[in-house]
Each structure stands twice: as structure tokens, then as C-alpha cells.
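# step 3/5: fold
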Amino acid sequence: MFKPSALFHKTHEGTSERLLQLAAGYFGTYVITGSLVKFFLSSKGMGMTGIEFLVYSTLISSLFCVSLVIYWKWYKFKSNNYTTFLGIHMPKEFLYIIPSGVLTAIIIPTTTLLYTFDGVSVMVAMIIMRGSVIIVSRIIDSIQIQQGILHKKVYWQENAGVVFALSAIALKLIFVKEGDFDFINNCAFMSIFLAYIFAYAIRIYIMNYYKNTRPKDAIYDYKGFFGIEQISASATLIISMIVILLVSANPGSVIDQFQQAVSQPHEKWFSAVWAGIPYGIGAFFSVFLFMFQGRTATFAGLTNRLTSLIAGTVATLIVWQWLGNRAPNWLDWGSLAFILIAVYFLGLGEKKRSAELLKAHEIVEEED
């Protein structure tokens, strides 16, 4: 049984208490991240463009993650299986962890960009992005069960959570009215969104491939996975930024705006740099939730995405009171209601799964 006091104490790997700690950390960092994005883009805040905030905040958030990875020596990935590739002797897992990092380099900027569109609240952006990842996670479980990679059953409670998460998205799709942010017919939004969800789909598959193909006594180094992935992501982002700065661009294009943000920095650029730190911290909680021991992709995806969706609700309320942005409407609250129902079913599934893992001695019960 979950003990609330464990939220403030050291917990064991794979327990419900550890899961709640990670979710709480992710919730807190995303409330801050979602609020800061709107603050820096608001005329009542810093008045930056979306590209300016992206440029200033993204690099430091990535480098922040990498600096901690190096400090904690998580780059020393532990593996039982080595190979030689291009003359380099390395863990065989690097063959897919490094590509996962490249995909992360796509996810990082597209996440920020999707928050920056005028007329879309933090809550709406999160519902669209997070709900789609929930669907992808369920599809990945089905694929890996068919491939014989995943040997766990997806509980009906987890499937019920997916249904209610889909219901939250459906509300936003069905009731788009004239004057609302019609993201379906917004080419720029949909292009960025499709890049985001495609990269996330492959990345989640890779995470679960690593998790589900560990032999019983093999090392499960999820911290090392995160470390190598983040180093790969940061290297990709830096190379991409250099290329973008060197190419010729048409006036007013996205690339031109990027170059202008660097050559003619906003007067508050340094503040935006530090605003990237909460996003960097949140990356730790996000990956650890996706890779949480003993859980299906469906469950881990639901936990991760629903946590940030609820955080989006809080962030929307904050910027509404703080900056006078659009107040949540009945569709926002209706979507939140479906999300909370999904959380309820998620809790039922976790209770059943933790009992199963305890019985199989895959986790230990937390002491009082």
C-alpha cells in the first residue's frame, strides 16, 4: 500500500512510492516551464518571439542536463553486451541509444515551439501533445507484444485510462469554433507537431526495447541510458545550431528569425537562458518515468503525460491570473475531468501491477 510519507524519503527502485516521487518532480518542473514560456512570450512579460525564447532557453537546458550527467558520471554506461562499430569497441546498446538522442534533439525544440502559438493555451498544447504520446505508447505495447519483446499483459485499467485520455483530446477536436485556435488547419503547427510525435514514437519504442530485452540478471542502467542519450541530443543540437547560423536564409523565414535572435539578441536574452533550467530538470523525471521498472509503455506513457497535462492546467491558471491570458473554458475543464478519470484508472492499474511485482520479488515493499 502506498505510504504518502515516502514522498519525502529515500525509496526503492520500481515501487509505487518511487513512481509518485518522480511524478511529483515532473509536475513541479512542468508547472514552472509552462508558465515561463507564456511569461517570456507575453507583451506583459518579456515580449520575446517564440524563436527567440527557443534559441536562448533550449541550449542551456540541454547543457545543464549534460553537465549533471558528466558530474555524476552517468556516461559510464553499464552493459553485459559489447560490439565493435567503425573500429570502436562499445556497448551494443549504443547502436540505438545514440539515435534516440538524435530524436530527443527534435523533441526538445518542437515541444517549446508548440507552446508559442498565439491563441493556444498551455493546457491545450499539452492536451494535444501528451494525449498523442499516450496513444503511441499503447500502440508500442501492442507491437512489442506481437514481436515477443514485451511479456507483460496490459491491464484493462490501463486501457481504460487510454480511452479517457483519448476523450480529453476528442473534446478539443470536435468543438473547434470560429475564432478558436484551429490547429488542424494550421500548417505550421501541424508540421511541428508531426515532427514531435514521429520522433517521440520511435524514441519510446527504443526506451521500451531496452527495458523489455534485459535478460533476468542483466544490468538495467536507465541512468546511463539517459546520460548517453542526452550527450547525443546536445551534440546534435549544437551541430544543428551551427549549420542554421551558417546557411543563407530568406528574410522573415524561421531560419532568418533564428539567426536574428543570435546576431541581434533580445535585451532580456540572459533571463531566458536561465528559464531553460526547469525544462532541463524535468527531462530527468520524464525519462525515468518512461523507463520505470516493471511497467508497460502504456502505463509509463499515461503516468508521464497525465502528470504534465495536470501541470498544464495549473500553468494555464497561473498565467491567466499573472498575465491576464485567456481563462480556461468549459472545454479545457471538460478535458481535465477526463484526464482525472484516466488517473483514477491508472491508480487501479498500479495497485494491481505493484502487487504482481511484489509477488514475483521484482520489487520490495517500502517500510514505514
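# step 4/5: annotate
The mean pLDDT is 87.
# step 5/5: archive (pending)
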